[in-house]
Amino acid sequence: MVGIISYGASLPALRLPATAYKEAWGACGARGMVQKAFCSYDEDAVTLGIDAARSALGRLGNNQPAIGALFFGVTAPPFDEKPSAATLATALFDYKNIRVTEISGSPQAGMQAINSAIEYCQSNNGRSALAVVADAPTAPPDATFEHALGAAGAAFVIGPDGPVAEFLKCFSVTHETFGSRFRRRGEEMISDLELRTRDNLISIEEVGKLTATSDVPKRMALGVDAGLTRGVGRLLGNSEAIVDKIWTEIGDAGAAAAPCALVATLDIMTANETVLAVGVGAGATAVAFRAGGGLSENRRKGRKFSELIKCGRVANYIDYLKHKRLLSSRTGGKG
Amino acid sequence: MTSYISLPTYSSNIDERLRMIAGKCNQCGTLAYPQRPVCIKCGQNKFERVPLSGEGKIYTFSVVNGGGAPSEFDEEQTMTGDVYCGIVELEEGPRVMVRFTDINPEQLKIGMKVRAVVRRLYDQEGFLRYGAKFTQVA
Ligand SMILES: [Zn+2]
């Protein structure tokens, strides 16, 4: 059965504690967040993606399969036109016969990239693919929803057999949103009219209806904030599920949020346990996996997500703004 | 490896910059990184492409204080302070001029183990350039 052959993640170099927002603005708009990970001046979604992919491929040593397709899930690529996925492929492989696809447009992009890699392997018998997800969304510093925005990357080598985790099923719901998390063409920063539309809750409820007919997964890997995390077990009809909460430690990593939660969950799963990873935004994409016999050996070959969280350098708020180019008259936040 | 070069030159050796591909002399086996048109040891001009591990140690280093960096790093230096650069002796032998990143300046010393990571080098002519920088081995 198609599934995950190897996995890995990357976090940027810097951390900002939530208290920095309390000091600067009187309150932190990201309730429940302890700290977030953010990119230093020379990092972005591409560098995080390369690092995460090298981690996932590196765990395979000399047993790396030929990768036929690379899917890059990202909402904040540095170019609107000119595929950053080609930069990833150039940095990772010495061959050029590889298909690259960039998936963007909502925080679902990460889980969509993983699902696309799975479907590529299902429809191309015996071939392997790489799903890379990385993101570093930016918003105006005086917007409350900016407080949560973090950065992260993850990568999954998908192949005809999934010794790390076997693919079980994908569930997708789509619904058009009006005013929540959008970015018009040519704009650098995301907008959110903060209309409290319950868009994400509705998406999760819809996923819950779809998954109700399947086996109940033991664990949930969610790309959602602390507020949504609390009610999500009930919404998905699975109050007993163990929900992973990396959001409180890395912030909102956009397209990388749910895949990184999947990485953190794989780090602690035992063989035969199941997990449902859910990426949310303008709908939801959920992918279910069952951990395999090769999981523990694979994860021993790399660093755990919890270790990556700990190894960042803590910065202050002014340094945060400088590294994110938000104080630059020349680039004005241009990433 | 990191200061300004034209985009056509940058693109022609992108494999060296992103994947650390060296040239190995077909005649005497000497490694050239960055690659060169002729072997510095035997003068021959045929090379095999070999990937380097990206691991090495600091041979020497400099700290460039405010205002001293070349213009392509001007904005970065304004935002992040001192620029750390130097020469790394790679595990395979070649010594290469590099920039350091995520380095604790108090721990910076000759002989320190470092490894290559891909980072944004600079943004000029409306275009971003990525390439190898070296960071402390955790
Ligand atoms: Zn020679």
- End-to-end separation of chain B: 24 Å
Largest sheet of chain A: 10 strands, mixed
| Count of alpha and pi helical runs of chain A | 11
Radius of gyration of chain A: 18 Å
Name the shape of chain B in a single word.
Answer: globular
Helix fraction of chain A by DSSP (H/I, runs of at least 4)? 25-40%
Low-confidence stretches of chain A: none
Give the total of domains of chain A: 1
Helix % of chain B is 10-25%
Name the chain pair whose interface involves the most residues: A-B, 26 and 23 residues
What number of structural domains do the residues of chain B give?
A: 1
Strand line-up in the sheet with most strands of chain B: 6-5-4-7-8
CATH topology annotation of chain A: Peroxisomal Thiolase, Chain A, domain 1
Count of DSSP strands of chain A: 13
**CATH class call of chain A:** Alpha Beta
| Integer-rounded radius of gyration of chain B | 16 Å
**Dominant shape of chain A:** globular
CA(first)-CA(last) distance of chain A: 40 Å
Fraction in beta strands of chain A: 15-25%
Can you summarize the main beta sheet of chain B?
A: 5 strands, antiparallel
Description:
The complex is a heterodimer of chains A (335) and B (138). Chain A is of the alpha/beta class and 335 residues long. Chain A has a single domain, classed as 3-Layer(aba) Sandwich (Peroxisomal Thiolase, Chain A, domain 1), CATH 3.40.47.10. Chain A is 30% helix and 24% strand. Chain A is built from eleven helices and 13 strands. Chain A has helices spanning 19-25, 45-58, 84-92, 109-123, 199-211, 226-235, 247-250, 257-266, 295-300, 305-310, 317-323; strands spanning 3-10, 14-17, 35-38, 67-73, 99-103, 128-135, 152-159, 165-174, 219-222, 242-244, 274-280, 283-291, 313-314. In chain A, the strands form two sheets. Chain A has a ten-stranded mixed beta sheet with strand order 5-4-6-7-1-8-12-11-9-10, sandwiched between helices. In chain A, strands 3-2-13 form a three-stranded mixed beta sheet. In chain A, α2 packs parallel to α3 (84-92). The longest helix of chain A has 15 residues, at 109-123. Chain A starts with a strand and ends in a 12-residue tail after the last helix. The mean pLDDT of chain A is 93. Chain B has a five-stranded antiparallel beta sheet with strand order 6-5-4-7-8. Chain B has helices spanning 7-12, 14-19, 74-80, and strands at 21-25, 31-32, 47-51, 55-64, 83-90, 95-99, 113-124, 127-136. Chain B has three helices and eight strands. The chains are: A alpha/beta (335), B mainly beta (138). The A-B interface holds A 13, 40-44, 46-47, 50-51, 78-79, 87, 90-92, 94, 311, 313, 322-323, 325, 327-328, 330-331 and B 14-15, 18-19, 21, 51, 75-76, 78-80, 101-102, 117-121, 123, 128, 130, 133, 138.
